Amino acid sequence: FVYSPLLTDKDWDTAVTFLPASDNKKLEKKRGPGKVGIIVGLVILAAVLALIIGLLAWHFHFRKDLKLQKIYTGSLRITNQVFVDAYENSDSAEFKSLANQVMDQLKSMYSESPELSKYYIGSRVQAFSEGSVIAYYESEFAVPVVQEAAVDRAVSSLSETYSTKVRRAQQGPLVFDHVVSSALDTRLFSKARTSTRFAQHARSSAEETIKSPGFPDQPYTPNSFVQWQLRADPGHVLKLSFDTFNLEKNCSNDFVRVYDSLVAMDKHLMAEKCGFYSPSNPLTFISSRNVMLVTFVTNEEENFPGFRARVTQFKLACGGKLSGSSGSFKSPNFPSYYPPSTTCQWDIEVPNGKFIKLKFPKFMVSTGSPNCPGDNVQIVGKSTLCGQQPANTMVTVNSNQVSVVFKSDSSQVDRGFSATYEVFEPSDPCPDQFQCNNKRCIDPSLRCDGWNDCGDGTEEKNCKCDASMIQCRNEVCKPMFWRCDGINDCGDDTDELNCGCKIGEFKCKNDQCVSEKLKCDGNPDCKDGSDEDGCTRDICKVSTFACNNGKCITKQNPMCDGQDDCGDNSDESSCDCGKKAYTKSRIVGGQEADMGEFPWQVSLHIKNSAHVCGASIISDRWLVTAAHCVQDDVKIKYAQAGTWEAYLGLHRQTEKQKATKKFLKQIIPHKNYNVYTYDNDIALMELDSPVTFSATIRPICLPTATDFFPTGETVTISGWGATREGGAGAPVLQKANVRIINSTVCDELMNGQITSRMTCAGVLSGGVDACQGDSGGPMSFLTNDRMFLAGVVSWGDGCARRNKPGIYTNVPKFRAWIKEKTGV
Ligand code: 4AZ
């Protein structure tokens, strides 16, 4: 039901009266200052002095009386009362009677403090909950500006007095303890806002929902303040699950706050949220007791669709006894937010004589700082973890027993952790493996191979290198093919000393050597770009943008960076691309993408059959894919538009009905595609009708012809391809980050098969790569806050093998061709 707004808005603006203007007489002009001049001067001086004195008097007399409206929210426990159901209804006689008593006693409590009694206006009880009876209230004070800090101190000292000992408030029958209060954020009681309050009780049988005003038919209303008081049965906790959450990005304008209380107390603020959350990565919150408060505040600008959340109740249980040789456990509600004010203890006992290895694949436990105040995970007798820990953080325990205690404090929750444990022999912590200093165990063949597999580099120290490796002076080994590639791989430059160039190589001005083939290919392959110097080019020089007005821009990535670099805005037009709709936080070695994270990703199916290739949306009519995906074979006419159906906005292959299916009008493979070398592996597909863009369907930005993606830069690949070489396709869209690899190095690794129409990217230590079924899909590069189509998945030597990067079609090379064929 709806409450009326609590406090009538008071206007504390103090009227300011200006000093009367001095009655200046008209004065005659004279040559010199003379007598009259002196008099005039004195009069002006006197007027100025009077003005200064007046202003000072106003400042010290009136301004100190300027009053602030201060609201403190609080809760207190009434220990000598028993909760009755009627207390849930603020219209009931029982509620009103107890509320009046609480208000009386609050008044008498404030009268104990001179600062508070002087400025006290009134209180209002907002709600009661069980235990014995907890009252939630707001108290209002009109405080002179200069007294604000003193009043804050008086309120917290009063709370301290009542929270430490049980006290009967003067002249009242109620006994209070646990009086807690804090100043209410001014954003929660702005005068301009219309305010609405709801109270709802979750039941086990039925499902309650809460939603922003107007949802789902219209955007939420501006300048509103809505509050939901949520309750569950005693002994239960509440779960709030947002199935839609789409608010403005900036939390200082519109936000949702979730409190572990029935009043908006910062001490019990679980989280403040804004922005857009993907349904595949939903927000859910759990309370520590049977109450929760949700507040929704909007300002006058930009109204978004809003949110809807289910409210359920359940009994929270966590921790327990764990035994056996291995097992797992996780924080309550993982991977969504754990409840505040909660303690869970897991007592692990493995067979006698064995030790325990704990591993945390994911760990996000509130903010970390020295000594982990707030929320933390204690591995009793060993260490305490908090904050964000690297994936697979490991802790070993030299005992067959250990207790792991997770504690959250009263505010600011996070996504928590997952953990596994397994046993190890005390005499052999890493059977047949190398033990790193950080206790990780790795395959012994990974020692001294130039890659940091331990994570702490221990296995790359004190190495004797074999002939295929460079012996760096600092005693690490690096692969020989990294010698003289312009990158300091050793860390002490040993690998870049005494570098001449081989036959077929070009010597850059910085002494780096690059393949002769790369000279004047439009990409600066030398770090200093000297391989592109002096090349005759009809348009702008390398690494610049050719504006429509003929101007050349030398700045890197000038497109869509919000600045009109060209002067005719041509570098800022066509920028409605490359942005995902959602907030946030196969491919071999990747992980599941969030829904809508790659809204340009397309799944190409043979009609009424399975996924074959990926593609990327570049406009409402055109897709880019790989030419090798559209080559006829003896059985299937892949080159014909009628063979295909394209799924746009697809996340899970089994949920095709949720995606947009499109047929094709035509396919344009690049005419120079080479079936043997995969050179020019790119094709365009025209949809038979334009697609409507949405949160899950959007185009990616196209790079300009002169864009280039520097060695070492991170790019993201996505697709439903195989999750290991020779394996099956992924049911859910996968993503992985890989790095751009120097073309010269790549050409050597791939036995001279790399052309300037190809870009290499991967993780040379292996394990992360595109694979069969990812072909045609995007390699996305993030710049200026947008994703650009840097490459198209093309080919590779197997998948995710060591020193075998993935090969991608170099999209900038085809920018003019795309424009010519599609107009995009
Ligand atoms: C493929 O067969 C394929 N490792 C795509 C990419 C890679 C290998 C194979 C890169 O579609």
From TrEMBL:
<feature type="disulfide bond">
    <location>
        <begin position="501"/>
        <end position="513"/>
    </location>
</feature>
<feature type="transmembrane region" description="Helical">
    <location>
        <begin position="36"/>
        <end position="60"/>
    </location>
</feature>
<keyword id="KW-0378">Hydrolase</keyword>
<dbReference type="InterPro" id="IPR009003">
    <property type="entry name" value="Peptidase_S1_PA"/>
</dbReference>
<dbReference type="InterPro" id="IPR018114">
    <property type="entry name" value="TRYPSIN_HIS"/>
</dbReference>
<feature type="disulfide bond">
    <location>
        <begin position="508"/>
        <end position="526"/>
    </location>
</feature>
<feature type="domain" description="CUB">
    <location>
        <begin position="318"/>
        <end position="424"/>
    </location>
</feature>
<feature type="disulfide bond">
    <location>
        <begin position="484"/>
        <end position="499"/>
    </location>
</feature>
<dbReference type="Pfam" id="PF00089">
    <property type="entry name" value="Trypsin"/>
</dbReference>
<keyword id="KW-1015">Disulfide bond</keyword>
<dbReference type="GO" id="GO:0006508">
    <property type="term" value="P:proteolysis"/>
</dbReference>
<dbReference type="Pfam" id="PF01390">
    <property type="entry name" value="SEA"/>
</dbReference>
<dbReference type="InterPro" id="IPR036055">
    <property type="entry name" value="LDL_receptor-like_sf"/>
</dbReference>
<dbReference type="InterPro" id="IPR000082">
    <property type="entry name" value="SEA_dom"/>
</dbReference>
<feature type="disulfide bond">
    <location>
        <begin position="472"/>
        <end position="490"/>
    </location>
</feature>
<dbReference type="InterPro" id="IPR035914">
    <property type="entry name" value="Sperma_CUB_dom_sf"/>
</dbReference>
<dbReference type="InterPro" id="IPR023415">
    <property type="entry name" value="LDLR_class-A_CS"/>
</dbReference>
<feature type="disulfide bond">
    <location>
        <begin position="448"/>
        <end position="463"/>
    </location>
</feature>
<dbReference type="GO" id="GO:0016020">
    <property type="term" value="C:membrane"/>
</dbReference>
<dbReference type="InterPro" id="IPR000859">
    <property type="entry name" value="CUB_dom"/>
</dbReference>
<keyword id="KW-0472">Membrane</keyword>
<feature type="domain" description="CUB">
    <location>
        <begin position="198"/>
        <end position="314"/>
    </location>
</feature>
<dbReference type="InterPro" id="IPR036364">
    <property type="entry name" value="SEA_dom_sf"/>
</dbReference>
<feature type="disulfide bond">
    <location>
        <begin position="465"/>
        <end position="477"/>
    </location>
</feature>
<feature type="domain" description="Peptidase S1">
    <location>
        <begin position="587"/>
        <end position="823"/>
    </location>
</feature>
<dbReference type="InterPro" id="IPR043504">
    <property type="entry name" value="Peptidase_S1_PA_chymotrypsin"/>
</dbReference>
<dbReference type="Pfam" id="PF00431">
    <property type="entry name" value="CUB"/>
</dbReference>
<feature type="disulfide bond">
    <location>
        <begin position="540"/>
        <end position="552"/>
    </location>
</feature>
<feature type="disulfide bond">
    <location>
        <begin position="560"/>
        <end position="575"/>
    </location>
</feature>
<keyword id="KW-0645">Protease</keyword>
<dbReference type="InterPro" id="IPR002172">
    <property type="entry name" value="LDrepeatLR_classA_rpt"/>
</dbReference>
<dbReference type="GO" id="GO:0004252">
    <property type="term" value="F:serine-type endopeptidase activity"/>
</dbReference>
<feature type="domain" description="SEA">
    <location>
        <begin position="68"/>
        <end position="188"/>
    </location>
</feature>
<dbReference type="InterPro" id="IPR001254">
    <property type="entry name" value="Trypsin_dom"/>
</dbReference>
<keyword id="KW-1133">Transmembrane helix</keyword>
<feature type="disulfide bond">
    <location>
        <begin position="436"/>
        <end position="454"/>
    </location>
</feature>
<keyword id="KW-0720">Serine protease</keyword>
<dbReference type="InterPro" id="IPR033116">
    <property type="entry name" value="TRYPSIN_SER"/>
</dbReference>
<dbReference type="Pfam" id="PF00057">
    <property type="entry name" value="Ldl_recept_a"/>
</dbReference>
<keyword id="KW-0735">Signal-anchor</keyword>
<keyword id="KW-0812">Transmembrane</keyword>
<protein>
    <submittedName>
        <fullName>Suppressor of tumorigenicity 14 protein homolog</fullName>
    </submittedName>
</protein>
